Amino acid sequence: MALYTFLFPIILFGFFSFGSPAIVEHSLTVKNLTVNKLCQDRVITATNGSLPGPKLRVKEGDTLIVHVFNRSPYNISIHWHGIFQLLSGWADGPGYVTQCPIRPGSKYTYKFTIKGQEGTLWWHAHVQTLRATVYGALIIRPASGRSYPFPKPRREVPILLGEWWNANVVDVENQALATGAAPNLSDAFTINGRPGDLYPCSSDDTFNLKVMLGETYLLRIINAALNHQLFFTIANHQLTVVAVDAAYTNPYTTTVITIAPGQTVDALLTADQIPGQYYMAARAYASAPGVPFANTTTTGIITYEGFSWSPPLLPVLPAFNDTETANRFYTNLTGLVTSPFWVPVPKNVDEHMFVTVGLGLIPCGRNNTCAGLLGQRFAASMNNASFQLPNRISMLEAFFRNVGGVYTSDFPNDPPVRFDYTNPSNSLNQALLFTSKSTKVVKVKYGATIQIVMQNTALVGVENHPIHIHGFNFHVLAQGFGNYDPTVDARKFNFINPQMRNTIAVPVGGWAVVRFKANNPGVWFMHCHLDVHLAWGLATAFAVENGPTPEATLPPPPPDFPKCY
Fold first, then answer.
1. Which end of the chain, N or C, is less surrounded by CB atoms within 10 Å?
2. Rg for the chain (alpha carbons), in Å?
3. What is the pLDDT of residues 103-142, one digit of tens each?
4. Distance between CA 213 and CA 229 in Å, rounded?
């Protein structure tokens, strides 16, 4: 009976069939957990008593049902990062966008079918900074009768890269928002919740992976860090990338993986070196010149079976500002057009958008003292619109019930002022720095093809921004540095085999062009996956209208849909 009681909150019921899609059912209980890291006891918000939370496994075509019980002191919601949520937008999860949060003491059941996706995705909290400790892997294997488009590995190993604070992460965010300053930096990075033995009091808090000589392993790498892109490498070993963001790629062999928050990378590791111990390691890729960052390194250890202990070999990691290495990785990936769910690039564009992404300021306010740049409050915006979440009803419910006053449909397709976007001389140009809060979305007809030029700006400072679009994969047609030039840069578009992603790292001081078809009705968030920038307003949303048939119409919300009050 004791064993059953322990397992019940982790997997309520799971049913797999060998010939048809299954219903896979889990329970997640979110509550306080005391852990000891970096020589300190900390109370964190965690899921099912673990950090990271449970690994959820499904097959393509399965229906996933997850009962979330909120036993924490905070509002919570869970986002299933990268899942298309076809006609199940009520389960997408971002707080106040597709649902009101699950209040303390309440529960909500997420239900959705996973169609046309295989690979590594993940789930995480989508209210404030709680995803720092509320997250886990979501593994989608091929349906029965199908196989991977690469040799079957001996074992599949999730590698979740996280970020740790010796503080309450909600307090860290609230303090920053109250003062208008940037939040305090994290104290460590982690691999599968463990900092690694380069940090104090962490020699026994290091992830270990045993391998056999000559065998190949599939590493399912997830960047769950809040505010840092990361370089990842393994001493003396090569990695062959075979998928990103649950979309297969042509094999790409590298010694260094660059991965932005929200992104996933599937990479094959062959244990082909002299038997011994080797470090895997991750450190920040910090692209913003002069901006403080968490300059530490997390490690795990790979041990060849049968080998007695010896000091592990450390890898050589790129410099923290090695944009050349980061760009080489991001631009060398191409889509595998022979994979079962490859989608050709839509040819005819219905909606052209040019969207500036970057930082700015909002006024401190009369009789206030603020700690942001120039004594103001830090902000962030897209096309100079700094996004403000509603709080009385979710945007999706307002969309469904035609409730006014929650958002407006006037997000601009172009920036209100054109300027030399990436010129550092504009960093402190007060004629350009200031933005204002609003809740503006892009209204889109069902089935429309949208092309977005995402243009980084130098306002406050240039930085690589990982932009995530909920509900869709997009083709990355091209990316580059400087200001986007449609005459020159459009010639660089890859229409043959571009990589497909749900999160694109827009190059520091540069641009990226993505294209997708809006074939799923609902409200879909687009935002920077650096949590500090999301809180400052670097976001908007797409309101995709219903299509002409019941199969293209958003159904009503489920009966247990959370309320905001």
1. N
2. 23
3. 999 999 999 999 999 999 999 999 999 999 999 999 999 9
4. 31
